[in-house]
Write a structure and sequence with these properties.
Elements: E1 5-9, H1 15-24, H2 34-43, E2 46-52, E3 55-64, H3 72-80, E4 85-92, H4 101-115, E5 120-128, H5 132-140, E6 144-151, E7 156-164
Parallel strand pairs: 4-5
Antiparallel strand pairs: 1-2, 2-3, 3-4, 5-7, 6-7
């Protein structure tokens, strides 16, 4: 059987699968409710899914500056950059990890940033507890640390990172 993989904009019909994926990897992410996802979809610059044979196996959510989002990491970038594209989360199903879907989605984000004249793509990576796979992944896309902060009531520390487009 041939595998059909397509990247497409998410719709509200995908919310259930997006929430399932987020929950599956919630230890690396912040929790997401349907209400919050609906709000973030409205605020987002990019909410895309990777669909394989009709099943959503990955998604990316990214926002531009000036949006209504209460994330402490997003707020940090708001204070430090005039114009940016913030990758809030990229999630790949556990069964599809290391299959290149994250790379595909990041390529979409960087292509969009170039097309829309955004000079920098930003993200954060957990450093306590450490997420070495994510760190290595981001390095391949040119991300460099631009700050650090404690989040989740001091339970986590993150490295705030940026990759210059221009």
């Amino acid at each position: 059987m041939m595998t059909e993989t397509k990247i497409r904009p998410a719709t509200p019909l995908d919310y259930e699968q997006i929430l399932r994926l987020n929950e599956e990897s919630v230890h690396f992410l912040s929790p997401l409710s349907k209400e919050k996802l609906t709000h973030l979809h409205k605020e987002s610059e990019i909410l895309k899914v990777v669909e394989i044979n009709g099943s959503v196996e990955a998604f990316v959510l990214a926002l531009r500056e000036g949006k209504d989002y209460d994330s402490v990491n997003y707020t940090w970038f708001e204070k430090n950059y005039d114009k940016f594209l913030y990758i809030d989360r990229v999630v790949v199903s556990v069964k599809k990890q290391n299959s290149g879907l994250g790379k595909l989605l990041y390529e979409e984000v960087f292509k969009h940033a170039k097309l829309t004249g955004v000079p920098v793509v930003t993200a954060e990576i957990d450093i306590e507890p450490a997420n070495p796979i994510s760190l290595k992944f981001h390095e391949k896309f040119g991300f460099k640390e631009v700050g650090k902060q404690a989040v989740a009531g001091g339970k986590k520390n993150v490295s705030l990172q940026a990759s210059q487009i221009y």
